[in-house]
Amino acid sequence: MSDDTVTRNPETGGEVLVPEGTSTIPVDIVETHVGQFGVHGSPDVSGYGGLITHTELPGPSERPYGGWFDEVADTLAASLGDDYDAIVESVVVAFDELTFNVRRDQLVRFVQILRDDPMLRFEMCPGVAGVHWLHDTGRELHSVYQFLSITHNRRIRVETTCPDEDPHVPSITSVYPTADWHERETYDFFGIIYDG
Q: Which residues are CB-neighbours of 42 under 8 A, at least 6 positions away?
């Protein structure tokens, strides 16, 4: 039997499995589904008609983040100066990962600092992926980037969003040429257009 506990987030009502000895992770519910098979208006013979499931994402984290996560956040804040709060929409620490949610118009500037700052040195972008949250109004398309620092043996994630009506995100290939193929694949699967 696991020592993990299920904790309900009082703000959203969502539940999350929290390992023993760690604090509660805030949860944002991005979608709610009723029923199992999407059939409405007919008698339910499956037994799943009353099933309600939530698609949950970890919500923004509060400082301190812990360990080297704070060092990375402090270095980025120093490099971006007064623009930090305007560029970084939120920071999420969950499941031993550090994720920066960045405004799409500032994405290239942000990743340039990740690569070039000697305290960060995230030399590699091993992958780009997409996610489509239908009910995340105005932010339906998410472009997710993994970054690896070989120098410091660290990994982080960066995420940016765009609406279905304007599916454009700037390409990061000017900073990380290896992202070219991954951006093309994300376009093929999710329709995000990587400008440049």
A: none
